[in-house]
């Protein structure tokens, strides 16, 4: 029996995630692996590969706990190729009821052979057969432990919901037990797909596109009238998606771009891959917009995705960028840990370290200070991240404000801007205070129907 394309792709993706710090979601939608792309997988194989990749990443610590008692070697001593094959096999045996046990074991062994780790073939075969032969394996496979819902310690929540304990301990200290449990539980679910409508649409759930015959069912967005939730079907196969009339984008990310408002000169300072830039261009068709990113490969992607005539794409570091004139609107959607997006990027929780937060905070403060120099008098700066960590959010804003030259900036009211979006029938949430914490926008996975985002508005006097 040969190895299925789905398992081959899943193995290669997980290996790249492990060895190259790649992101699984990007690889799953790349030309090489994307469903029905010229070189990619069939729709069925892409679905199985996605299940395996994301399942292994979400439940990694629980899979390792299942494997460890049967292994005579510490798992951390195994080659990455061997451990990935074991995790894939264990996930299929304990979680995917429709996958025959013999297929999960055999193909995991074949993946080890393919990786030229033949000395580990016997170990992988014996270990997975033991797990597959355990009667309780499928019943006790990956999923929150029965005690997880009532857990209130960092160790019990971390174990029950497969998160690093140090990260859970941070969240408990900042957010309390109830919110922390909600965040962790949401991170373990398959996230909803939201789209942004790029054409005018009526409010109330109707979409301006004909999806008849394309097996896609939509429901209204939870926050925005211009958003829809994909209830079933593959939106990427529709004519509307191929024609760029809809774009996949979380509602909180869409909301951040809308909060920038309207102006005549706009700077998107950390713009790639371009989702927020596209919204700025659509909402400000007469404005001159500069979309900036420091990485050449990301600006190339940005140029492909945002083709509006009023957008100039520039490869530059914001900290040394010199514009001919200042901007009345500036967006800094800063590089961050991404802890508000762990449902979509579960690999982050295993590679993140506490020192990364400190390193990123330093960069974020420098970016905000550089952005302040680009804002015209009377203009606004919106700072945002998809992080839950206070060091990357409130503390960055407070630190930058303390250092502001001549005290020329003041903190603006996010609530006021949210009310403006309400008045314009873009924001459908009745109570804007649900989305705020003090003067800031704050959303949490599991508490709000979107990713975790932070935003602050700085006004130049």
What layout of secondary structure does this protein have?
Layout: H1 5-20, H2 24-28, H3 43-58, H4 60-67, H5 80-95, H6 101-114, H7 121-132, H8 154-161, H9 165-175, H10 177-187, E1 193-197, E2 217-220, E3 227-232, H11 239-242, E4 246-248, H12 251-259, E5 265-268, H13 275-283, E6 288-293, H14 296-305, E7 311-315, E8 327-333, H15 347-351, H16 354-372, E9 375-385, H17 394-402, E10 409-411, H18 414-423, E11 436-437, E12 440-442, E13 454-460
Parallel strand pairs: 5-6, 5-8, 6-7, 8-9
Antiparallel strand pairs: 1-3, 1-4, 2-3, 9-13, 10-13, 11-12, 12-13
Could you explain the architecture of this structure?
The protein has four domains: 5-132, NusB-like (N-utilizing Substance Protein B Homolog, Chain A, Orthogonal Bundle), CATH 1.10.940.10; 155-187, no CATH class; 193-248, Alpha-Beta Plaits (2-Layer Sandwich), CATH 3.30.70; 251-460, Rossmann fold. Helix 16 packs across helix 17 (394-402). A hairpin with a 6-residue loop joins strand 2 and strand 3 (227-232). It has 461 residues and is α/β, with parallel strands linked by helices. The strands form two sheets. Strands 5, 6, 7, 8, 9, 10, 11, 12 and 13 form a nine-stranded mixed beta sheet that branches. The chain has helices at residues 5-20, 24-28, 43-58, 60-67, 80-95, 101-114, 121-132, 154-161, 165-175, 177-187, 239-242, 251-259, 275-283, 296-305, 347-351, 354-372, 394-402, 414-423; strands at 193-197, 217-220, 227-232, 246-248, 265-268, 288-293, 311-315, 327-333, 375-385, 409-411, 436-437, 440-442, 454-460. The protein is 42% helix and 14% strand. The radius of gyration is 23 Å and the shape is globular. 44% of the residues are buried. It contains 18 helices and 13 strands.
């Amino acid at each position: 029996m040969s190895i299925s394309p789905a398992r081959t792709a899943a193995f290669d993706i997980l290996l790249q995630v492990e060895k190259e710090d790649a992101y699984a979601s990007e690889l799953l939608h790349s030309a090489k692996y994307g469903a029905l792309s010229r070189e990619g997988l069939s729709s069925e194989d892409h679905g199985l590969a996605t299940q395996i990749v994301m399942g292994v990443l979400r439940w990694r610590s629980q899979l390792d706990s299942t494997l460890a008692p049967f292994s005579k070697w510490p798992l951390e001593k195994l080659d990455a190729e061997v451990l990935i094959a074991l995790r894939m096999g264990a996930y299929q045996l304990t979680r995917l009821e429709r996958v025959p046990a013999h297929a999960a074991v055999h193909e995991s062994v074949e993946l080890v052979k393919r990786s030229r780790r033949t000395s580990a073939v016997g170990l992988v075969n014996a270990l997975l057969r033991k797990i597959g032969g355990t009667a309780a394996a499928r019943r006790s496979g990956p999923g929150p432990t029965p005690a997880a819902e009532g857990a209130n310690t960092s160790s019990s929540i971390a174990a029950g919901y497969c998160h690093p304990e140090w990260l859970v301990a941070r969240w408990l200290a900042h957010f309390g037990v109830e919110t922390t449990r909600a965040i962790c539980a949401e991170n373990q679910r398959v996230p909803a797909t939201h789209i942004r409508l790029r054409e005018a649409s009526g409010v109330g759930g109707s979409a301006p596109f004909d999806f008849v015959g394309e097996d896609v069912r939509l429901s209204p967005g939870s926050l925005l009238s211009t958003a829809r939730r994909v209830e079933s079907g593959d939106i990427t196969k529709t004519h509307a998606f191929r024609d760029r009339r809809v774009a996949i984008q979380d509602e909180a990310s869409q909301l951040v771009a809308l909060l920038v408002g309207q102006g005549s000169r706009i700077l998107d300072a950390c713009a790639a891959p371009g989702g927020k830039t596209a919204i700025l261009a659509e909402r400000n068709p007469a404005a001159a917009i500069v979309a900036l990113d420091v990485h050449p490969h990301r600006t190339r992607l940005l140029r492909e995705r945002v083709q509006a005539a009023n957008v100039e794409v520039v490869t530059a570091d914001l900290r040394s960028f010199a514009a001919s004139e200042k901007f009345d609107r500036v967006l800094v959607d800063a590089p961050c840990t991404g802890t508000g997006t762990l449902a979509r990027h579960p690999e982050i929780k295993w590679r993140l370290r506490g020192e990364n937060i400190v390193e990123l905070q330093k960069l974020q403060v420098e970016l905000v200070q550089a952005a302040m120099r680009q804002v015209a008098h009377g203009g606004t700066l919106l700072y945002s991240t998809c992080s839950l960590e206070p060091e990357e959010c409130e503390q960055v804003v407070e630190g930058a404000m303390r250092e502001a030259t001549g005290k020329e900036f003041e903190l603006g009211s996010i609530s006021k801007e949210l009310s403006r979006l309400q008045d314009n029938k873009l924001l459908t949430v009745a109570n804007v205070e649900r989305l705020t914490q003090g003067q800031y926008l704050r959303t949490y996975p599991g508490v709000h129907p979107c990713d975790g985002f932070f935003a602050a508005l700085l006004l130049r006097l």
